[in-house]
Amino acid sequence: MPPPANDRTNTPALKTRAARSTSHRSSNRPPRPKEANMAGLFGGAASSAANTNPTQGDLSKDVAVADPPEDSISNIAFSPQSEHLAVASWDKKVRIYEIDQNGNSQGKALFDFEGPVLNCAWSKDGSKVFGASADKTAKMLDIQSGSTQQVAQHDQPISCCETIVAGGNQMLVTGGWDKMVKYWDLRSPTPAGQVEAKERIYTMDVRNDMLVVGTAERWIHVVNVNQPGTFYRTLQSPLKWQSRVVSIFSPEPNGFAIGSIEGRCAIQYVEDKDQSGNFSFKCHRQTPPNDRNTSNVFAVNAISFHPQHGTFSTAGSDGTFHF
Question: Is 98 within 8 Å of 131 (Cβ atoms)?
């Protein structure tokens, strides 16, 4: 499974030599992606091979959430309709916080699982919260009534959950280590449909009619949710190491970003006519002051696009976020 967000030790390549000879690369690896020069939002230098210092902003006005989870946080999700934040954690709980205008938080609800919670998501109307767990189930909390019910089941841990609207009905999409993508009508205990991915599912994102699924062995599946039983496109990530996260472009969902455990991010368009716009760049890397030929490499755990401007941020296992 992908390493937890705060776990550096699970990353298989913590250090890489920046000056490696190309003769040491395996001949069956994909070609080296183009590098992009990403300017720092706060006046810092770009994350590149020449300068790998983290780009950090002023955190003095940040407010910590009250009564946080007791173990690693696997995912956070804001309600699309209200100032509520859902937090999934390895302590087997999903917590819901209410955030006021000053950033102060108050716990409003929580629901439990039998295993670590690996993901969470909101319904489009903000009335329900979903959690996906290593106990092979997904559950739903009704915010108004406070009732909880199981809404999905897999043969292996469920790593991802998202909500879509299909045929006018709100549905839940789950992905698991059993390689299955399943679609659930919340009125039925059995899946309305399913499709098998090439490998274990590690990450998933949905926007409008596009669903993107990232699996082990760097496979990426693209789904048109109007035809959920088939994959619209299947490709392998241009990055050399395990995919950690996928995130669909916004506001125009014509492609997606991929983050890997090797401190690298790729921008990938879906259609063939747009492939010239693909590129990748390094991020979440640190160069020790006494060894300029070595980079400490950290996983890219999260990517989030601005809903209007197309800019995006990344968060990594080095404890920093970049814009």
Answer: no
